[in-house]
Structure formats: structure tokens, C-alpha cells
Amino acid sequence: MSDPILVLAHIDETSQINIGAREALGFAQNLSENTGRPVECGLIGADNSSATAEVTELGATKVYTIEDSLLARFSGDNMVSAAAHIVSSSGARIVLIGRHPSTLEFIPRLSRRIDGTCVMNVTRIETINEQYTEIEAAVYGGAARALYQIDSTSPVVVGLRPAAAEAPTPHPENSSDIVELNLELLADRVRVITEATADEGPRLENAEIVVSGGRGLQNAENFALVRELANLLKGMPGASRAIVDEYWAPPTEQIGLTGTTVAPALYVAAGISGASQHMAGCSNARLIVAINSDPDAPIFKYADVGIIDDCLAVLPELIELLR
Amino acid sequence: MHILVAAKQVLDPDGINSYALWGRLEVSEDGLGFNTGATVPQIINAYDEQAMEAALQIAEVQEGTRVTAVTVGSDTAPDVLKRCYAMGAENTIHVHDDEKQSGNPFRISQILATVAKNLGDVDLILCGRQGSDYDQGAVPAILSEDLGMPFITMASQINFDEQTQSLHVDVVTPNGPETLACNLPAVVAVSNEIGQPRYPSSRRMIQSRRNPPTVFRADELLPGPATEKMSIKLLTVPEVQGNCEIIEGVDPKEKAKHLLQILRERGDLNV
Ligand SMILES: Cc1cc2nc3c(=O)[nH]c(=O)nc-3n(C[C@H](O)[C@H](O)[C@H](O)COP(=O)(O)OP(=O)(O)OC[C@H]3O[C@@H](n4cnc5c(N)ncnc54)[C@H](O)[C@@H]3O)c2cc1C
């Protein structure tokens, strides 16, 4: 049986595929090696030409593309219609989607539209046979895993957990069949009144160094210590949800399951306890440094290097030394 | 306006976290729960409580707004409805369903869609953005498809705009806040950025006993034999391997020095 493994990606105004799509192609490749199914890719965006070349290098043997200027910004209604069109054209029963801010809407809606199923935060696909597919997902913030058993006769849309796989090595000599599909787009039922514009500056998810603070900072003013240390290290500041809820830091700086996922070379966690939901966003850092006054704080289970002390005393010393 | 709030019961995530962090989280014999007993209480999913709060905020400014709360779950689930009632819901609905089905968002959505259709006059359905148990966040979006309604998630503020007779929803995005709009009826999923939910009134908490939920059985509300396309077979707990080098030092200054030394010696960091 060789219905394909289909990776779907939205191409925004950068015209590039994002990290989530690259991880999904890596996941697809591993699955393809185990099952003999070909890897195909569906691209939805305003200009997919360079992304088409990129996914071909990363292993897609066939690329479906739907292009329209209306698709540069994620539009739920049109994205779901476009994706459903691609899934039915490809005949895929395994559809993979990597991390992207839209997945909370896109994946479940798509799965319903194609009369299939979906699983989010997927870590592994264990079994695929004619009757059922077994898929493992991170649940309870990452503290547990659930094995889902899913009917194989309809497509399953799989939302991958960040870093569920590594991006494949590009092969510039690869080639692919390109299938251009058309779709009549409609005005989205959801209208944009004011749009957030991405900062031109560096992005948290790409930062090489992240310094994060949690409730151990004691108050909003002390978050300045985190910002200053991040600055001196040429990194970016991050926060636990506890202090975002307290308005000490903006939601855009939240690290974790329901915030941004980072994978920096260095992650410094000051006054953060290490709840699974927080660690879901940073456990792929190459080096984790924890500063916490409680020697029993769970963060020390995840950290590579630890300082057991008051972060309000340690952070100023680090700042002083780096100035 | 008639607002339907969907809320579910979950094991207190803070309790599960403490068990997990001390390496004591164990899966129960049937493979579908944990051996935490009564030490980890069943509570209302926090995002759903925030959805309830959002509904009440709309009701405060929008005259004639009614809020109905619905939950799908087994015997203990009505506790969630008591809380919603005490916060200010007028009516509550309990759809009794087997706990084992809770991992199938398509089933839950179908049930909720039937509840909404049977009520007949629902203008807005509010849900939490995800359950803190399975973290799937699938039900609200599936529900919008089941009902053919527009969908907005990650809401941090919801207003009804009189002038355009449409819903204005502030949402959280990685690039910062945005405002979106859509016509009613709609499904909106609420995030924690909406703020602390109000405390339930103790007077209404007591009254909730005299105002029990309307109860349905799931199979009464599902069209034909329920499609069982997916289910959770087994929960497992991954092990966390601790291997942390604790930095020595007489005071914070010395520890800070040692840390920088270690970071610099690695050579792969530009510090
Ligand atoms: C569905 C769901 C999603 C969630 N998503 C996220 C998410 O995306 N990101 C996230 O971060 N959380 C998330 N959470 C919340 C998470 O479970 C924790 O509650 C949160 O991460 C705790 O933040 P904290 O570590 O700052 O605070 P706390 O847990 O209160 O920890 C504070 C720590 O600071 C230490 N401390 C105190 N004083 C000092 C001092 N002077 N110096 C040094 N250390 C000190 C304490 O020992 C403690 O370890 C989520 C929860 C749920 C249920």
C-alpha cells in the first residue's frame, strides 16, 4: 500500500517554510523509511516558488501548491478549504503538520472538513496498519503520554510536537512533480480589524541565548534583571506563564506549551520551578542553567548546570561581571 | 444574547505536576488514569472557567444576555456546573458520558453541537482554548465546523459591537495583540490572557443545590450509533533523567563567576 505521507505548510510573506514544516518533513522521512510510503508536500501561500524548491531538496517527491495573494496571511476559512483540496487530491491518509501559531485552529478544522481525525502534540507514530494507526502524544503538559488508537480508513491529521523530529539534510539534486491546484477563495468570515505586525528584530524562537524569569523574581520590576542579562548575553528574554499572568512580562515572551518553543544553545531559567508545561517549551536547549533558591526545585532535574541561591542576588552579579 | 459555555472537568494540573516532578506519577491499572486518588482533586478546566468569565463580562454590558453552561462527563462532572452556576450561569446542562470517551474530541463536539441546536437560540459558544488534561484543544474548532460557524481562538477580550452587530475579539498572537471580528453565531475559544475569573458567590453556590442541571445521556444526543474513530488506549509517564552539575561558591558573586567560567570553557557559546 503506498498512499503518500503528506506534509502541509503555510507559506507566509517571507516565502520560506518555517521550522515546523522542516521538522514535519524530517518526521515524514523517518516514517517513509519505515513504511515505504512516498513523502509529498502541500504548500498554501501567496508565493510558493522558493518553498517548492526547498521542500523538494528536503525530500518531497510531489508538491501540491495553491497560490493566491489572499493566502499570505493565515485565513482559517481559506486555509482549511485549500488544505482539504490538497488532501483529497493526494489521497493521503497520514497528514503531518509542524508547529505554527495557527495549528490550534487549522488542524482540528481540517480534520473535521475531510471527515478524518486529528491528534495534537504528537511525539511518535507507532503502528500503521489497514485497521488502525497508533499515535503517541504528549499530554498533561508533557508529564504523560497518551497512545491514541485511530481508525485507519479515514485520514488523520497529525500535529507534531515541537522538535518531534529533526529537519532532513537538503539534497539539491532532488526533483519533484509539481501539481498546481486552483481554488476559488472567499472573503474569510473572520475579519481583521487591527493586525499585529511582526517586529523586524530577532525572533524569540530563533534566539541562540534565552534568559527567562519566573515567580522567583518576586515582583514586576525585577524582570528588568532578566532583560538586562539577556541583553548583555546578546540573547532574548523569556518568561514563565506565572509571571505573564501577573503582567510582569507580555504574552509574546511566554516560554512553554502554550507559549513559544525555543531551542537555544543556552537557556537560563531564574526563579522558575520547572513545571512540565514550561519545560515543554525549552527542554531542547543545548544547555540549561537553573538559578533557584530551593535545592529541591524540579528545574534541577532538567538543568545541566545549577546555582542554588537567590536569583535576585545572582542575576546582579552576572550583570556586573558581563558589563 | 444567549451564550453557551462548554466546560470540562480535569484533574488539577498543579497536583499532577507535583506528582510528576517527584517521579511519583503512576498510571492506574486500566491504563487511562493516575494513581493519585483523592490527593489530586477534579476541578473545572481553568481555560473553561476563563470562558465562563468572558461570558459574564459580555452579560454585564449586553442587556438581556443569558449564559448557559454545559459539560460532557461522568458522575462527578456536575461539580463543574455548580461552579459555573455560582459564577453566574442561569442554566446548566450535564450530558452524561462514559469517561473512556473523553479522548475523542469528535464525539464531544457532536454532543455539544446537538445541545446547541436543541437550545435553538444560541448566539455565541465559548470554550476554553484547550483542556489541561490532554492539551489537544481540538473541540472548539471541530465544533465550529460541525455547526458551520466562524471560529476565533486565543481570545483575550470579547466585545459585542452594537454598531456593526458583530463580535470584536482581541486575540493573542506571537507578534502581539490583534483584533478580529465576525458575525454571530460564532464559536470563540478563550485563553488565560482574559484574566482572573471572578470568585463564585457563596449565595449562588448554595442555590446551585436547588437548581440542578438538566441531564441528558450522550447516546440520546448522538446521531445514530456514535462513530468511534479514535480513543485513548494507554497513558504512560516518561522518565526525566536528572543530571545537574551544581555550582559551588561561598556567595552569589563567586557562583556567578564560576558559572561564567563554565559557560566560557564550553567554547560553543559566545558569552
Ligand atoms: C494547560 C496549561 C498550560 C500551561 N502553559 C504554560 C506555559 O506555556 N509556560 C509556562 O511557563 N507555564 C505554563 N503553565 C503553568 C505551569 O504549570 C506553572 O504553573 C508555571 O510554569 C510556574 O511558573 P514559575 O516557575 O514562574 O512559578 P512557580 O512554580 O511559583 O515557581 C517559582 C520558583 O521560584 C523559586 N524561587 C522563589 N524565590 C526565589 C528566589 N528569590 N531566587 C530563586 N528562586 C526563587 C521557587 O523555589 C520556585 O521553584 C501551564 C499550565 C497549564 C495547566
Would you mind describing this structure in some detail?
The complex is a heterodimer of chains A (323) and B (271). With 323 residues, chain A is α/β, with parallel strands linked by helices. Chain A has 2 domains: 5-180, 3-Layer(aba) Sandwich (Rossmann fold), CATH 3.40.50.620; 204-322, Rossmann fold (3-Layer(aba) Sandwich), CATH 3.40.50. Helix content of chain A is 27%, strand content 28%. Chain A has helices at 19-35, 49-57, 76-90, 103-113, 223-232, 241-245, 276-279, 299-302, 311-322; strands at residues 5-11, 39-45, 62-67, 94-97, 117-128, 132-139, 144-151, 156-160, 177-180, 191-194, 209-213, 236-239, 266-270, 287-292, 305-308. Chain A has a 9-stranded mixed sheet with strand order 7-6-5-8-4-1-2-3-9, sandwiched between helices. Chain B is of the alpha/beta class. A 9-stranded mixed sheet of chain B has the order 9-8-7-10-6-1-4-5-11, sandwiched between helices. In chain B, strand 4, helix 3 (78-87) and strand 5 (91-96) form a beta-alpha-beta unit. The model of chain B has no long low-confidence stretch (mean pLDDT 95). Strand 10 of chain A pairs antiparallel with strand 9 of chain B. The complex binds flavin-adenine dinucleotide. Flavin-adenine dinucleotide sits between chains A (141, 214-216, 240-243, 254-259, 271-273, 275, 277-278, 281, 291-294, 297, 310-312) and B (13, 17, 132).
The side-by-side strand order for the widest beta sheet of chain A comes to 7-6-5-8-4-1-2-3-9
Q: Determine Rg of chain B (CA atoms, Å).
A: 22 Å
**CATH class category of the largest domain in chain B:** Alpha Beta
User: Architecture of the largest domain in chain B, according to CATH?
Assistant: 3-Layer(aba) Sandwich
The succession of helices and strands of chain B, N to C, reads EEHEHEHEHEHEEEEHEHEEH
Helix content of chain B: 25-40%
Assembly of the depicted chains = heterodimer
Let me know the number of strands of chain A.
15
- Summed over residues and divided by their number, the pLDDT of chain B gives a mean of 95
The largest β sheet of chain A comes out as: 9 strands, mixed
- The average pLDDT score of chain A comes to 96
Number of helices of chain A: 9
Bound ions, cofactors and other small molecules, one mention each: flavin-adenine dinucleotide
Provide the CATH topology of the largest domain in chain A.
Rossmann fold
| Morphology of chain A | globular
Structural class of chain A: alpha/beta
* Rough outline of chain B: globular
User: What name goes with the CATH superfamily of the largest domain in chain B?
Assistant: HUPs
- Return the domain count of chain A: 2
Name the CATH superfamily classification of the largest domain in chain A: HUPs
